[in-house]
Amino acid sequence: MRAVNLIPPDQREGAGGAAGRSQGAAYAVLGLLAGVALLALLYGQAHRQLSSRRGQLASLTARTQQVQAQTGGLAAYTSFTALREERERAVAQLVDSRFDWAHSLHELGRVLPSTASIATIEGAVGSATGNLGAGAAKTTSGATPVSATPPGSVPSFTLTGCATSQAQVAVTLNRLRLIDGVSEVTLQSSSKGSAGSAGGGATGGCPPSGPAFTATLTFDSLPATSSVTASTVAATSGGSR
Amino acid sequence: MTGRDRLVLIAVVALALLGAGWIAVVSPERKQAAKLQTEVTTAASALASAESQLANAKAAHARYSAEYASIVRLGKAVPPGREVPSLVYELAQASDKKHVDLASIVYGGGATGAAGSSAAATAGVAGFTQMPFTFVFNGTYNDLYNLFKALDSTTARTASGGVDVNGRLLTIQSVKLAPLTASSAAGSKGGANEMLSGTISATAYVLPASQSLTGGASAGAPAGATAASTSSAASPPTAPALARVVP
Predict the structure, then answer these.
(1) What is the model's pTM?
(2) Residue A99 burial (CB < 10 Å; 0-12/13-18/19+)?
(3) To the nearest whole angstrom, how far is the Cα of A1 from the nearest Cα of chain B?
Protein backbone atom coordinates (compact mmCIF):
# COMPACT_ATOMS: atom_id res chain seq x y z
CA MET A 1 0.00 0.00 0.00
CA ARG A 2 1.33 3.42 -0.87
CA ALA A 3 1.93 5.95 1.98
CA VAL A 4 0.19 9.30 1.66
CA ASN A 5 1.41 12.52 3.40
CA LEU A 6 -1.59 14.18 4.89
CA ILE A 7 0.26 17.34 6.12
CA PRO A 8 -0.73 20.38 3.99
CA PRO A 9 2.08 21.30 1.61
CA ASP A 10 2.57 24.83 3.06
CA GLN A 11 3.05 23.40 6.55
CA ARG A 12 5.53 20.76 5.61
CA GLU A 13 9.14 21.31 6.86
CA GLY A 14 11.24 23.34 4.37
CA ALA A 15 8.20 24.25 2.33
CA GLY A 16 8.55 27.42 0.13
CA GLY A 17 12.33 26.97 -0.33
CA ALA A 18 14.24 30.15 0.00
CA ALA A 19 11.08 32.20 -0.21
CA GLY A 20 10.18 31.34 3.27
CA ARG A 21 7.06 32.64 4.75
CA SER A 22 7.04 35.85 2.75
CA GLN A 23 6.85 33.74 -0.33
CA GLY A 24 9.78 35.71 -1.96
CA ALA A 25 8.34 39.14 -1.36
CA ALA A 26 11.38 40.03 0.69
CA TYR A 27 13.65 39.21 -2.21
CA ALA A 28 11.51 41.22 -4.51
CA VAL A 29 11.72 44.20 -2.19
CA LEU A 30 15.48 43.76 -1.92
CA GLY A 31 15.75 43.56 -5.67
CA LEU A 32 13.64 46.64 -6.02
CA LEU A 33 15.82 48.49 -3.57
CA ALA A 34 18.93 47.38 -5.40
CA GLY A 35 17.43 48.53 -8.68
CA VAL A 36 16.50 51.88 -7.18
CA ALA A 37 20.00 52.21 -5.81
CA LEU A 38 21.44 51.41 -9.23
CA LEU A 39 19.14 53.95 -10.84
CA ALA A 40 20.17 56.54 -8.27
CA LEU A 41 23.82 55.77 -8.96
CA LEU A 42 23.36 56.12 -12.71
CA TYR A 43 21.36 59.29 -12.26
CA GLY A 44 24.01 60.73 -10.02
CA GLN A 45 26.71 59.93 -12.52
CA ALA A 46 24.73 61.45 -15.37
CA HIS A 47 23.94 64.52 -13.32
CA ARG A 48 27.57 64.94 -12.37
CA GLN A 49 28.60 64.59 -16.01
CA LEU A 50 25.96 67.07 -16.98
CA SER A 51 27.20 69.63 -14.52
CA SER A 52 30.79 69.04 -15.46
CA ARG A 53 30.10 69.35 -19.17
CA ARG A 54 28.03 72.47 -18.68
CA GLY A 55 31.00 73.98 -16.94
CA GLN A 56 33.35 72.80 -19.68
CA LEU A 57 31.07 74.19 -22.35
CA ALA A 58 30.84 77.54 -20.66
CA SER A 59 34.58 77.65 -20.20
CA LEU A 60 35.25 76.66 -23.82
CA THR A 61 32.76 79.18 -25.13
CA ALA A 62 34.26 81.96 -23.06
CA ARG A 63 37.77 81.02 -24.13
CA THR A 64 36.70 80.85 -27.78
CA GLN A 65 35.14 84.29 -27.58
CA GLN A 66 38.28 85.63 -25.99
CA VAL A 67 40.48 84.10 -28.69
CA GLN A 68 38.17 85.34 -31.42
CA ALA A 69 38.32 88.82 -29.99
CA GLN A 70 42.11 88.68 -29.99
CA THR A 71 42.08 87.37 -33.56
CA GLY A 72 39.70 90.13 -34.59
CA GLY A 73 42.13 92.67 -33.22
CA LEU A 74 44.82 91.26 -35.50
CA ALA A 75 42.56 90.82 -38.54
CA ALA A 76 44.20 93.71 -40.34
CA TYR A 77 47.52 91.89 -40.24
CA THR A 78 46.12 88.67 -41.64
CA SER A 79 44.35 90.65 -44.37
CA PHE A 80 47.61 92.34 -45.23
CA THR A 81 49.39 89.01 -45.39
CA ALA A 82 46.66 87.71 -47.70
CA LEU A 83 47.06 90.78 -49.90
CA ARG A 84 50.80 90.24 -50.08
CA GLU A 85 50.40 86.57 -50.92
CA GLU A 86 47.82 87.32 -53.61
CA ARG A 87 50.04 90.01 -55.14
CA GLU A 88 53.06 87.74 -55.12
CA ARG A 89 51.07 84.88 -56.62
CA ALA A 90 49.89 87.12 -59.44
CA VAL A 91 53.40 88.37 -60.17
CA ALA A 92 54.74 84.82 -60.05
CA GLN A 93 52.12 83.70 -62.55
CA LEU A 94 53.14 86.46 -64.94
CA VAL A 95 56.80 85.57 -64.51
CA ASP A 96 56.06 81.91 -65.17
CA SER A 97 54.02 82.71 -68.26
CA ARG A 98 56.89 84.41 -70.07
CA PHE A 99 58.65 82.85 -73.01
CA ASP A 100 62.41 82.57 -72.55
CA TRP A 101 63.58 84.60 -75.54
CA ALA A 102 67.18 84.75 -74.41
CA HIS A 103 67.42 80.98 -74.15
CA SER A 104 65.85 80.50 -77.58
CA LEU A 105 68.25 82.97 -79.18
CA HIS A 106 71.12 81.25 -77.43
CA GLU A 107 69.94 77.90 -78.75
CA LEU A 108 69.58 79.31 -82.25
CA GLY A 109 73.15 80.52 -82.21
CA ARG A 110 74.26 77.14 -80.86
CA VAL A 111 72.67 74.94 -83.52
CA LEU A 112 73.06 77.09 -86.63
CA PRO A 113 75.65 75.50 -88.94
CA SER A 114 78.49 77.59 -90.30
CA THR A 115 77.23 76.96 -93.82
CA ALA A 116 74.10 79.01 -93.18
CA SER A 117 73.49 82.55 -92.07
CA ILE A 118 70.40 84.26 -90.75
CA ALA A 119 69.29 87.58 -92.13
CA THR A 120 66.18 88.24 -90.07
CA ILE A 121 64.40 86.65 -87.16
CA GLU A 122 60.80 87.37 -86.37
CA GLY A 123 59.51 85.77 -83.25
CA ALA A 124 56.11 86.04 -81.68
CA VAL A 125 54.17 84.43 -78.91
CA GLY A 126 50.66 83.96 -80.12
CA SER A 127 47.60 81.85 -79.70
CA ALA A 128 46.68 79.15 -82.16
CA THR A 129 44.70 81.67 -84.17
CA GLY A 130 47.32 84.35 -84.37
CA ASN A 131 49.68 86.64 -82.58
CA LEU A 132 48.95 88.54 -79.49
CA GLY A 133 50.72 91.56 -80.76
CA ALA A 134 51.51 94.59 -78.76
CA GLY A 135 48.43 96.43 -77.84
CA ALA A 136 46.19 93.42 -78.10
CA ALA A 137 43.57 94.26 -75.57
CA LYS A 138 43.02 91.68 -72.91
CA THR A 139 39.80 92.43 -71.15
CA THR A 140 39.08 89.01 -69.82
CA SER A 141 38.18 89.02 -66.22
CA GLY A 142 39.04 86.25 -63.90
CA ALA A 143 40.73 85.33 -60.70
CA THR A 144 44.21 85.30 -62.12
CA PRO A 145 46.14 87.98 -63.91
CA VAL A 146 46.00 87.77 -67.69
CA SER A 147 49.46 87.66 -69.10
CA ALA A 148 50.29 89.08 -72.50
CA THR A 149 51.70 85.63 -73.16
CA PRO A 150 49.11 83.39 -71.51
CA PRO A 151 49.66 79.68 -70.89
CA GLY A 152 48.90 77.70 -74.02
CA SER A 153 50.26 80.37 -76.34
CA VAL A 154 52.51 79.01 -79.05
CA PRO A 155 55.78 80.84 -79.66
CA SER A 156 57.14 80.74 -83.19
CA PHE A 157 60.14 82.11 -85.07
CA THR A 158 60.27 82.93 -88.74
CA LEU A 159 63.82 82.91 -90.00
CA THR A 160 65.13 84.14 -93.30
CA GLY A 161 68.66 83.43 -94.28
CA CYS A 162 71.12 82.04 -96.74
CA ALA A 163 72.89 78.72 -97.11
CA THR A 164 75.70 77.64 -99.35
CA SER A 165 73.56 75.03 -101.09
CA GLN A 166 70.16 73.40 -100.97
CA ALA A 167 71.72 70.49 -99.11
CA GLN A 168 72.92 72.91 -96.48
CA VAL A 169 69.39 74.25 -96.18
CA ALA A 170 68.33 70.72 -95.29
CA VAL A 171 71.17 70.46 -92.80
CA THR A 172 70.09 73.77 -91.31
CA LEU A 173 66.49 72.57 -90.93
CA ASN A 174 67.71 69.44 -89.19
CA ARG A 175 69.91 71.48 -86.90
CA LEU A 176 67.06 73.86 -86.07
CA ARG A 177 65.07 70.89 -84.78
CA LEU A 178 67.69 70.53 -82.04
CA ILE A 179 66.67 73.80 -80.43
CA ASP A 180 65.35 73.24 -76.96
CA GLY A 181 61.57 73.41 -76.98
CA VAL A 182 61.07 73.39 -80.74
CA SER A 183 58.21 71.14 -81.76
CA GLU A 184 58.22 71.72 -85.49
CA VAL A 185 60.43 73.21 -88.17
CA THR A 186 58.74 74.11 -91.44
CA LEU A 187 60.45 75.22 -94.60
CA GLN A 188 58.46 77.88 -96.38
CA SER A 189 60.79 78.45 -99.29
CA SER A 190 64.32 77.91 -100.43
CA SER A 191 65.31 79.28 -103.77
CA LYS A 192 68.30 80.55 -105.59
CA GLY A 193 67.81 83.96 -107.06
CA SER A 194 69.69 86.17 -109.38
CA ALA A 195 72.41 88.28 -107.87
CA GLY A 196 71.04 90.74 -105.41
CA SER A 197 67.54 89.35 -105.29
CA ALA A 198 66.50 86.39 -103.28
CA GLY A 199 63.38 84.45 -104.06
CA GLY A 200 60.66 83.05 -101.89
CA GLY A 201 60.32 86.13 -99.84
CA ALA A 202 63.69 85.71 -98.25
CA THR A 203 65.79 88.72 -97.55
CA GLY A 204 68.21 89.59 -100.25
CA GLY A 205 71.91 89.58 -99.90
CA CYS A 206 72.57 85.91 -100.53
CA PRO A 207 75.27 84.96 -103.03
CA PRO A 208 73.85 83.80 -106.39
CA SER A 209 75.03 80.26 -105.84
CA GLY A 210 73.44 79.99 -102.42
CA PRO A 211 69.73 79.68 -101.85
CA ALA A 212 67.79 82.05 -99.67
CA PHE A 213 65.45 80.23 -97.36
CA THR A 214 62.56 81.01 -95.08
CA ALA A 215 61.73 78.63 -92.27
CA THR A 216 59.30 78.67 -89.41
CA LEU A 217 60.10 77.26 -86.00
CA THR A 218 57.18 76.37 -83.81
CA PHE A 219 57.86 75.93 -80.12
CA ASP A 220 55.96 73.94 -77.54
CA SER A 221 53.05 75.89 -76.13
CA LEU A 222 53.72 77.81 -72.97
CA PRO A 223 52.99 75.68 -69.93
CA ALA A 224 50.34 76.35 -67.36
CA THR A 225 51.67 77.70 -64.11
CA SER A 226 51.41 74.56 -62.10
CA SER A 227 54.01 75.57 -59.59
CA VAL A 228 51.97 78.38 -58.18
CA THR A 229 50.82 76.50 -55.12
CA ALA A 230 54.29 75.45 -54.16
CA SER A 231 55.62 78.90 -54.84
CA THR A 232 52.99 80.42 -52.67
CA VAL A 233 54.13 78.30 -49.78
CA ALA A 234 57.69 79.31 -50.42
CA ALA A 235 56.68 82.90 -50.86
CA THR A 236 54.85 82.83 -47.58
CA SER A 237 57.98 81.83 -45.79
CA GLY A 238 60.48 83.59 -47.94
CA GLY A 239 58.69 86.39 -49.66
CA SER A 240 60.03 88.43 -52.51
CA ARG A 241 63.52 89.65 -52.37
CA MET B 1 -4.03 33.83 -6.39
CA THR B 2 -1.22 31.54 -5.35
CA GLY B 3 1.97 32.67 -3.69
CA ARG B 4 3.88 32.13 -6.91
CA ASP B 5 1.48 34.38 -8.74
CA ARG B 6 1.94 37.07 -6.13
CA LEU B 7 5.70 36.73 -6.41
CA VAL B 8 5.58 37.11 -10.16
CA LEU B 9 3.27 40.07 -9.84
CA ILE B 10 5.57 41.77 -7.34
CA ALA B 11 8.56 41.15 -9.59
CA VAL B 12 6.74 42.57 -12.60
CA VAL B 13 5.64 45.62 -10.63
CA ALA B 14 9.19 46.12 -9.33
CA LEU B 15 10.63 45.86 -12.82
CA ALA B 16 7.98 48.23 -14.12
CA LEU B 17 8.85 50.73 -11.41
CA LEU B 18 12.54 50.46 -12.20
CA GLY B 19 11.84 50.82 -15.91
CA ALA B 20 9.69 53.86 -15.32
CA GLY B 21 12.39 55.36 -13.15
CA TRP B 22 14.94 54.74 -15.87
CA ILE B 23 12.78 56.24 -18.57
CA ALA B 24 11.55 59.20 -16.56
CA VAL B 25 14.64 60.19 -14.64
CA VAL B 26 17.92 58.57 -15.58
CA SER B 27 17.64 58.29 -19.33
CA PRO B 28 16.86 61.98 -20.02
CA GLU B 29 19.74 63.01 -17.85
CA ARG B 30 22.09 60.68 -19.68
CA LYS B 31 20.80 61.87 -23.04
CA GLN B 32 21.36 65.45 -22.04
CA ALA B 33 24.83 64.58 -20.83
CA ALA B 34 25.58 62.91 -24.15
CA LYS B 35 24.23 65.91 -26.04
CA LEU B 36 26.34 68.22 -23.94
CA GLN B 37 29.35 66.04 -24.67
CA THR B 38 28.77 66.60 -28.38
CA GLU B 39 28.48 70.32 -27.77
CA VAL B 40 31.68 70.25 -25.73
CA THR B 41 33.46 68.45 -28.56
CA THR B 42 32.19 70.99 -31.06
CA ALA B 43 33.19 73.85 -28.82
CA ALA B 44 36.62 72.32 -28.32
CA SER B 45 37.16 72.06 -32.05
CA ALA B 46 35.90 75.62 -32.49
CA LEU B 47 38.38 76.73 -29.86
CA ALA B 48 41.18 74.83 -31.57
CA SER B 49 40.26 76.49 -34.85
CA ALA B 50 40.11 79.91 -33.22
CA GLU B 51 43.47 79.33 -31.55
CA SER B 52 44.92 78.30 -34.88
CA GLN B 53 43.59 81.49 -36.45
CA LEU B 54 45.00 83.47 -33.57
CA ALA B 55 48.38 81.81 -34.05
CA ASN B 56 48.26 82.73 -37.74
CA ALA B 57 47.25 86.26 -36.89
CA LYS B 58 50.06 86.55 -34.37
CA ALA B 59 52.51 85.19 -36.93
CA ALA B 60 51.22 87.71 -39.47
CA HIS B 61 51.65 90.42 -36.87
CA ALA B 62 55.17 89.29 -36.04
CA ARG B 63 56.32 89.30 -39.66
CA TYR B 64 54.46 92.43 -40.67
CA SER B 65 57.63 94.40 -41.34
CA ALA B 66 58.92 91.72 -43.71
CA GLU B 67 55.55 91.48 -45.43
CA TYR B 68 55.42 95.23 -45.86
CA ALA B 69 58.91 95.31 -47.34
CA SER B 70 57.96 92.42 -49.61
CA ILE B 71 54.86 94.11 -50.98
CA VAL B 72 56.78 97.33 -51.55
CA ARG B 73 59.41 95.36 -53.49
CA LEU B 74 56.66 93.75 -55.55
CA GLY B 75 55.61 97.29 -56.39
CA LYS B 76 58.84 97.65 -58.33
CA ALA B 77 57.67 94.88 -60.64
CA VAL B 78 54.06 96.00 -60.87
CA PRO B 79 53.72 99.58 -59.67
CA PRO B 80 50.44 101.26 -58.78
CA GLY B 81 50.93 103.87 -61.51
CA ARG B 82 52.28 103.73 -65.03
CA GLU B 83 55.72 104.88 -63.93
CA VAL B 84 56.90 105.25 -67.52
CA PRO B 85 59.93 107.40 -66.60
CA SER B 86 61.30 104.74 -64.28
CA LEU B 87 60.70 102.09 -66.94
CA VAL B 88 62.60 104.11 -69.52
CA TYR B 89 65.37 104.71 -67.02
CA GLU B 90 65.61 100.99 -66.27
CA LEU B 91 65.71 100.10 -69.96
CA ALA B 92 68.33 102.72 -70.64
CA GLN B 93 70.42 101.40 -67.76
CA ALA B 94 70.09 97.80 -68.93
CA SER B 95 70.87 98.61 -72.55
CA ASP B 96 73.90 100.67 -71.53
CA LYS B 97 75.23 97.81 -69.45
CA LYS B 98 74.79 95.40 -72.34
CA HIS B 99 76.26 97.80 -74.92
CA VAL B 100 72.96 98.10 -76.73
CA ASP B 101 71.55 101.31 -78.12
CA LEU B 102 67.99 102.02 -77.01
CA ALA B 103 66.76 103.62 -80.21
CA SER B 104 63.07 104.18 -79.53
CA ILE B 105 60.19 103.52 -77.24
CA VAL B 106 56.61 103.69 -78.39
CA TYR B 107 53.85 103.38 -75.84
CA GLY B 108 50.72 101.71 -77.06
CA GLY B 109 50.24 99.83 -80.33
CA GLY B 110 52.92 98.77 -82.75
CA ALA B 111 56.00 100.67 -83.69
CA THR B 112 54.12 102.56 -86.36
CA GLY B 113 51.19 103.38 -84.14
CA ALA B 114 50.66 106.70 -82.48
CA ALA B 115 51.85 107.08 -78.95
CA GLY B 116 50.39 109.36 -76.38
CA SER B 117 46.75 109.93 -75.81
CA SER B 118 45.60 107.19 -78.14
CA ALA B 119 47.83 104.65 -76.47
CA ALA B 120 45.75 103.62 -73.55
CA ALA B 121 46.63 100.95 -71.08
CA THR B 122 44.33 98.04 -71.67
CA ALA B 123 42.18 96.95 -68.82
CA GLY B 124 43.35 93.57 -67.58
CA VAL B 125 42.02 91.23 -65.35
CA ALA B 126 41.00 90.93 -61.83
CA GLY B 127 44.46 92.03 -61.39
CA PHE B 128 46.85 94.01 -63.39
CA THR B 129 46.39 96.45 -66.21
CA GLN B 130 48.49 95.86 -69.30
CA MET B 131 50.65 98.57 -70.84
CA PRO B 132 51.90 97.63 -74.28
CA PHE B 133 55.18 99.08 -75.52
CA THR B 134 57.34 98.73 -78.57
CA PHE B 135 61.06 99.17 -78.09
CA VAL B 136 63.76 99.31 -80.73
CA PHE B 137 67.25 98.34 -79.66
CA ASN B 138 70.34 98.33 -81.84
CA GLY B 139 73.18 96.01 -81.04
CA THR B 140 74.96 92.83 -81.92
CA TYR B 141 73.27 89.44 -81.63
CA ASN B 142 75.17 88.65 -78.46
CA ASP B 143 74.44 92.01 -76.92
CA LEU B 144 70.75 91.72 -77.71
CA TYR B 145 70.76 88.21 -76.26
CA ASN B 146 72.34 89.60 -73.08
CA LEU B 147 69.74 92.35 -73.01
CA PHE B 148 66.92 89.80 -73.18
CA LYS B 149 68.47 87.98 -70.28
CA ALA B 150 68.74 91.21 -68.33
CA LEU B 151 65.12 92.12 -69.03
CA ASP B 152 63.98 88.72 -67.84
CA SER B 153 66.08 88.88 -64.71
CA THR B 154 64.47 92.10 -63.48
CA THR B 155 61.71 89.94 -62.11
CA ALA B 156 62.48 86.27 -61.89
CA ARG B 157 61.64 83.17 -59.91
CA THR B 158 64.18 82.03 -57.37
CA ALA B 159 65.28 78.45 -56.89
CA SER B 160 63.21 78.31 -53.73
CA GLY B 161 60.08 79.29 -55.64
CA GLY B 162 59.92 82.89 -54.51
CA VAL B 163 59.98 85.97 -56.70
CA ASP B 164 63.15 87.99 -57.05
CA VAL B 165 62.24 91.56 -57.94
CA ASN B 166 64.89 93.96 -59.21
CA GLY B 167 62.85 96.03 -61.59
CA ARG B 168 59.81 96.30 -63.79
CA LEU B 169 58.15 93.10 -64.94
CA LEU B 170 58.01 92.88 -68.72
CA THR B 171 56.44 90.22 -70.89
CA ILE B 172 57.85 90.10 -74.40
CA GLN B 173 55.34 89.06 -77.03
CA SER B 174 57.30 89.49 -80.20
CA VAL B 175 60.82 90.14 -81.34
CA LYS B 176 62.10 91.09 -84.77
CA LEU B 177 65.81 91.10 -85.43
CA ALA B 178 67.00 92.48 -88.72
CA PRO B 179 70.22 93.96 -90.02
CA LEU B 180 70.60 97.57 -89.12
CA THR B 181 70.46 99.93 -92.06
CA ALA B 182 73.71 101.68 -92.88
CA SER B 183 72.42 105.10 -91.87
CA SER B 184 71.26 103.88 -88.47
CA ALA B 185 74.38 101.85 -87.92
CA ALA B 186 76.56 104.89 -88.37
CA GLY B 187 75.67 106.26 -84.98
CA SER B 188 75.63 102.96 -83.16
CA LYS B 189 78.22 101.10 -81.23
CA GLY B 190 79.96 98.07 -82.74
CA GLY B 191 80.81 97.17 -86.27
CA ALA B 192 78.17 98.01 -88.84
CA ASN B 193 78.20 94.49 -90.29
CA GLU B 194 77.25 92.88 -87.01
CA MET B 195 74.67 95.39 -85.93
CA LEU B 196 71.07 94.32 -85.68
CA SER B 197 67.93 96.25 -85.05
CA GLY B 198 65.72 94.52 -82.52
CA THR B 199 62.09 95.55 -82.43
CA ILE B 200 60.47 94.24 -79.30
CA SER B 201 56.81 94.30 -78.44
CA ALA B 202 56.46 93.96 -74.71
CA THR B 203 53.91 94.50 -72.02
CA ALA B 204 54.42 96.11 -68.66
CA TYR B 205 51.83 95.83 -65.92
CA VAL B 206 50.38 98.21 -63.39
CA LEU B 207 48.04 97.69 -60.49
CA PRO B 208 44.43 98.51 -61.24
CA ALA B 209 43.16 101.88 -60.11
CA SER B 210 41.12 100.26 -57.37
CA GLN B 211 44.23 98.94 -55.67
CA SER B 212 46.96 100.85 -53.94
CA LEU B 213 50.42 99.47 -53.47
CA THR B 214 50.06 98.56 -49.82
CA GLY B 215 46.29 98.65 -49.41
CA GLY B 216 46.50 101.70 -47.19
CA ALA B 217 49.05 100.16 -44.87
CA SER B 218 51.96 102.08 -43.45
CA ALA B 219 55.32 100.76 -42.39
CA GLY B 220 54.08 100.66 -38.81
CA ALA B 221 50.72 98.96 -39.13
CA PRO B 222 48.21 97.87 -41.75
CA ALA B 223 45.11 99.86 -42.47
CA GLY B 224 42.44 99.23 -39.87
CA ALA B 225 44.77 97.86 -37.24
CA THR B 226 43.39 98.66 -33.81
CA ALA B 227 45.46 100.36 -31.19
CA ALA B 228 45.11 97.35 -28.94
CA SER B 229 46.43 94.99 -31.56
CA THR B 230 49.26 97.36 -32.35
CA SER B 231 50.23 97.68 -28.73
CA SER B 232 50.04 93.93 -28.18
CA ALA B 233 52.74 93.42 -30.76
CA ALA B 234 54.97 90.45 -30.32
CA SER B 235 57.78 92.42 -31.86
CA PRO B 236 59.41 95.23 -29.94
CA PRO B 237 57.86 98.63 -30.44
CA THR B 238 59.38 100.81 -33.08
CA ALA B 239 61.71 103.40 -31.71
CA PRO B 240 60.49 106.92 -32.30
CA ALA B 241 62.17 108.81 -35.05
CA LEU B 242 64.51 111.49 -33.77
CA ALA B 243 65.29 114.59 -35.68
CA ARG B 244 68.29 116.50 -34.53
CA VAL B 245 69.13 119.90 -35.81
CA VAL B 246 72.74 120.84 -35.65
CA PRO B 247 73.27 124.54 -35.85
Answers:
(1) 0.71
(2) buried
(3) 32
The verdict on a CB contact (< 8 Å) between B173 and A124 is yes
Task: Tell me the chain A residues in contact with residue B116 when contact means C-beta distances shorter than 8 Å.
Answer: none
Put simply, the chain B residues between 48 and 77 with a CB less than 8 A from any chain A CB are 50-51, 53-54, 56-58, 60-61, 63-64, 66-71, 73-74, 77
Above 60 in pLDDT, residue B111? Answer: no
Average pLDDT over residues B72-93: 92
* Long-range interactions of B33-36: CB distance < 8 A, separation 24+: B33/A46, B33/A49, B33/A50, B33/A53, B36/A49, B36/A50, B36/A53, B36/A54, B36/A57
Q: What percent of chain B has pLDDT over 70?
A: 79
Which residues, 6+ apart, have CB-to-CB distance to A136 below 8 Å?
A148, B122, B132, B173
Q: Find out whether B178 and A119 touch, Cβ atoms under 8 Å.
A: yes
What number is the ipTM of this complex?
0.76
Grouping H, G, I as helix, E, B as strand and the rest as coil, residue A219 is strand
Asked if residue B235 lies in contact with residue B62, where contact means CB atoms within 8 angstroms, the answer is yes
Interface of B with A in 98-137 (CB under 8 A): 108-110, 113, 119, 122-128, 130, 132-134
Tell me the backbone φ, ψ of residue B129, rounded to 5 degrees. -95, 135
